[in-house]
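Hi support team,

I submitted a single chain yesterday and got back a structure, but I'm not sure I'm reading the token output correctly. Could someone confirm the output below corresponds to the sequence I sent? I've pasted both exactly as they appear in my results page.

Thanks,
R.
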Amino acid sequence: MCGILLTTRGIEDLATIIEYLKFRGPDQTNTVHIGGLNFVHTLLSMTGPPTPQPFVSEDGSRIAFFNGEIYNFQDFGNFSSDGECILPLYEKFGTEFVKKLDGEFALAVVDISSDTLLFSTDVFSMKPLWFALEDDDWGLSSYKSCLERVNFQDPIQIEANSTYIFRLSTMDKIERKDVFTFDLEQHKDNYDDWNKAFADSIEKRTRNIKHGIFIGLSSGYDSGAIACELERQQIPFTAYSIIGSENELTINERIGRTTDPRLIELSRDEFLDARGHLKGCCEEYSLRIDNGEMDLLRMEEERYGDICRELDGLEPIYRELNDPQTTDRVRVLRNEKALLEKKMPRLLELVEYRKSGQVLTDDNGAIGMSHICKLGKSEGQLIYLSGSGADEVFSDYGFEGIKHFRHSTIGGLFPEDLDSVFPWKNFFDNTQRAYLMKEEHVSGSYGVEGRYPFLDTQVVQEFLWLKPELKNANYKSVLHNYLVENNYPFDPAQKVGFNCGFSPVNDGFNHQKSKHRTVGETKDQSLLVNFDLVTSRRSDRRDRYVL
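Hi R., thanks for writing in. Yes, this is the structure output for that exact sequence:
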């Protein structure tokens, strides 16, 4: 893991620029001026010898940087560290080289000889990358604040699964292309290949590491599967469990099987200390999650337009003929129109509120994670295996077409034609983006590297290949089956929301318990999936953040 800034602009106050980068890369800082570019790199060395960046070709015409982990780098040659494979692969395969990489990464290549700038994220943008372009200047960085501090006004975060290619001399965009294209044929009739892919994803993320591994162990599906697989492969790890927020029976059963369990009960002072760390050491970040208000507003606007058009046609008839049937219809439409005129401004306010987002330091889960990272860091545990992505991919926050949260698209009901709903709102964007970046900001502020086994490309692909009846057999069917097969304790059909026992209120704290939901149950009809609406909005979802 590392922090990176690459820009054509001068860097006047280096100490301020790297204020947050230094937490992300505490082992080594390197600054380089090359080819009219200013480069800052802060390193956290995880595998192999410390490797300073940027990587530069022998003739000085090609420059590259990289943040994250490339797990298959040894497939390409005898490299001592993973980032060293980037320029050789680019020289061999051109701009298509990114498709060869298996990992969690953000990278860039500057090729002066071919007048090319390429930058890319992995399939789910597990490592952050920000881009800014103003007049003749441009910049790339792990953090938005670095670009703002060299006076870029409007940096944007590069979306998941994207490679961008620009003409270096003019900064005209040449092309955007996907890093990976998922195959949506649902043909596999058992979970065996998914189980193997999941085991492989754990093995590659724990191979040849120099530091300890830790997880946050709850009573839920996601952390349970990670703990189970680590135990099955006999990989040492520490499990931190915050008591008081989870099913006590399940937690006790799990820690009884764990070689290094740590039960945590946060005090008021520990809660405030964990929050204070985020305020002081973490770049400001807001979790912007569309909770369904935008789709609802669009529906109401469409309905309002239909009503206005119908009234325009009926009003002349109503005035001239005084027909009772027409009169009744006009009355109904006028009433509905008046209600919508009251409702839509309130929805618009909610949409704008969601856009502003929830500040990271007011997020209960972020504060709990902050405390766990502090404990892990104090014991030299610098690799955090996260369950992020399981809710988004394997259930879309629902089951049997019933949403747990309004931001769900398909409510965990996978159709026969997967292409009709893919990608659903949370698959690449929305909660996926928000929660990944929350974890990257929190872990990065401690010099801890987050790794995400459920977002391994093959793990996701094997899930998509499963026949719908297997996907829909149980809540988070692949995890349900895995936990049953391995006789690992869990609470079937229970969705548990993580918290640390407290919640920030006006810079203080409130006691708070986790929310447990029995999946597939609701009294709120608005939480039932409307697949006609899902299909109609499909074309809008993937292009939300495209440059």
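A quick pointer for reading it: Residues 324-356 form the longest helix (33 residues). Let us know if anything else looks off.

Best,
Support desk
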